[in-house]
Specification:
The strands form 4 sheets. This protein has a 6-stranded mixed β-sheet, sandwiched between helices. It is of the alpha/beta class. It is globular, with a radius of gyration of 22 Å. The protein has 3 domains: 138 residues, Alpha-D-Glucose-1,6-Bisphosphate, Chain A, domain 3 (3-Layer(aba) Sandwich); 207 residues, Alpha-D-Glucose-1,6-Bisphosphate, subunit A, domain 3 (Alpha-D-Glucose-1,6-Bisphosphate, Chain A, domain 3); 84 residues, TATA-Binding Protein, CATH 3.30.310. The chain starts with 9 loop residues before the first strand and ends with a helix. The protein has 14 helices and 20 strands. The structure holds magnesium ion. The site of magnesium ion has 6 residues, from loops.
């Protein structure tokens, strides 16, 4: 059976031959999965191929006898909100999130608004590979449009915050990544009492402003805009606005781990509990949580796993170091708009973002990658373990933790590469650990290669 779903849904580059067949066939499998007579919400980001793929997936779903509510161009968390709010049986998002413009993707949402668990995705993969038929003409599904759900999502977020007092009004620059984030965040922050300036706010599938991933090298314009306007901070979304990256008032990029630590500190100052993060999270977060008297629960990489673990153990917060933060009192999923509002509240209460960042523990985290054939991936870690005398943990990949440093060795789920992450307070130590484990990886790959 072919695996279709990666750590965050299905991603591919739809070219001229794949506009129709794959989305319709997948839609049919989805319609069978959700069930005849059931109802699912479908939304998309602003990509050029979004309307074609959405129409194909929706056709397949209806052909299986399942009904569709078309939400139009919306953020992924808006679809998750809609599934809960409209009490539908599930949702589908047509988006490639942070991937370049030529990509698109499909993500499935369960009836509780969380991303589908892996075992559920396997059921869809089985239906897809076995092939399923269409309902008869009396039983095919209907499609209605509902574009009001964005307003509902905005109101729901704002219901959790107090508007800023007149003397605490902030200026925020919002970079919408030419996606749905540009439709939501400026409105939300304005209603919260901020002075908002936007860049890349109009949805545009050609992404004329910048590439959709909110990493430092793509956010030069936002950095300049923050400094030029004398703003309090800048916030940048990815293509489907489940992530938010921040620029402080000095124009410095705030890494996702640092913003997670700032959120965790704020939440734990109000309520003690457990913070859930994946195995590749910086010690900036772990140390901050412990300093604040909180507990840390480590999961494998992937936001659906983090969200489900938070729900399972009643965690107070969680997220990933890529700018995806999960506030469980809000929803069990990442929501970039919610992250932006939280940051407004924290900066208004506690002072400048640069000071919040500078008060965090200082670590250097670096990553490198080694080319690794897919067929060697399953044996590689076992073989490497034989050469490592230190204690290791295998929650996801292999993590070696020492007093002053840690290294994570993990095969990519989507590319023929092996990733090595190292972190320590001392940059020289990080470089030497990266070099040491890079050499070990290359040596073991050579030994295993036929
Ligand atoms: Mg995303």
């Amino acid at each position: 059976m072919k695996r279709l779903f990666g750590t965050n849904g299905i991603r591919w580059k739809p070219d001229r031959s794949e506009y129709f067949n794959f989305p319709i066939k997948l839609g049919l499998a989805l319609g069978h999965y959700f069930g005849k007579g059931k109802c699912v919400c479908i939304g998309m980001d602003a990509r050029t191929t979004g309307p074609i793929i959405k129409a194909g997936v929706a056709s397949g779903i209806m052909a299986a006898g399942c009904n569709v509510i078309d939400l139009g161009i919306v953020a992924t968390p808006t679809v998750q909100f809609a599934v809960r709010d409209l009490e539908t049986d599930g949702g589908v998002v047509i988006s490639a999130s942070h991937n370049p413009p030529e990509f698109n993707g499909i993500k499935c949402i369960a009836s509780d608004g969380t991303e589908l668990a892996r075992q559920e995705e396997e059921k869809i993969e089985r239906l897809f590979s076995e092939g399923v038929g269409c309902a008869n003409w009396q039983e095919v599904g209907k499609c209605v449009s509902d574009h009001s759900v964005i307003a509902g999502h905005i109101d729901y977020i704002l219901s959790q915050f107090q508007a800023l007092p007149e003397d605490k009004k902030l200026t925020v620059i919002v970079d919408g990544s030419n996606g749905p984030g540009g439709l939501l965040t400026p409105k939300i922050l304005s209603r919260l009492g901020c002075r908002v300036i936007t860049i890349n706010a109009q949805p545009d599938g050609l992404f004329p402003g910048r590439l959709p991933e909110p990493v430092e090298e793509h956010l030069g314009d936002l950095k300049d805009a923050v400094v030029d306007a004398g703003a309090d901070f800048g916030v940048a979304h990815d293509g489907d606005a489940d992530r938010a990256a921040f620029i402080d008032e000095k124009g410095r990029y705030v890494t996702g781990d640092k913003s997670l630590a700032i959120f965790a500190k704020h939440i734990l100052s109000k309520e003690k509990g457990t913070v859930v993060v994946p195995v590749n999270t910086s010690k900036v977060v772990i140390d901050t949580v412990k300093e604040m008297g909180g507990a840390v629960k480590i999961t494998p990489v992937g936001s659906p796993l983090i969200a489900r673990k938070i729900a399972e153990i009643g965690g107070v917060f969680g997220g990933e170091g890529n700018g995806g933060a999960i506030f469980p009192k809000h929803m069990f999923c990442r929501d970039g708009m919610m992250s932006a509002c939280q940051m407004v509240q924290i900066v208004a209460e506690k002072g400048s973002l640069s000071q919040l960042v500078d008060r965090l523990p200082r670590y250097t985290l670096k990553r490198t990658r080694v080319a690794c054939p897919e067929k060697l991936k399953p044996m590689l870690l076992q073989e490497m373990k034989k050469h490592i005398s230190a204690e290791t943990s295998d929650i996801d990949g292999l993590k070696i933790v020492d007093d002053d440093w840690w290294v994570l060795l993990r095969a990519s789920g989507t590319e023929p590469i092996f990733r090595i992450t190292a972190e320590a307070k001392d940059e020289g130590l990080v470089d030497s650990k990266l070099a040491e484990f890079r050499k070990l990886t290359e040596d073991v790959i050579q030994v295993l290669s036929p």
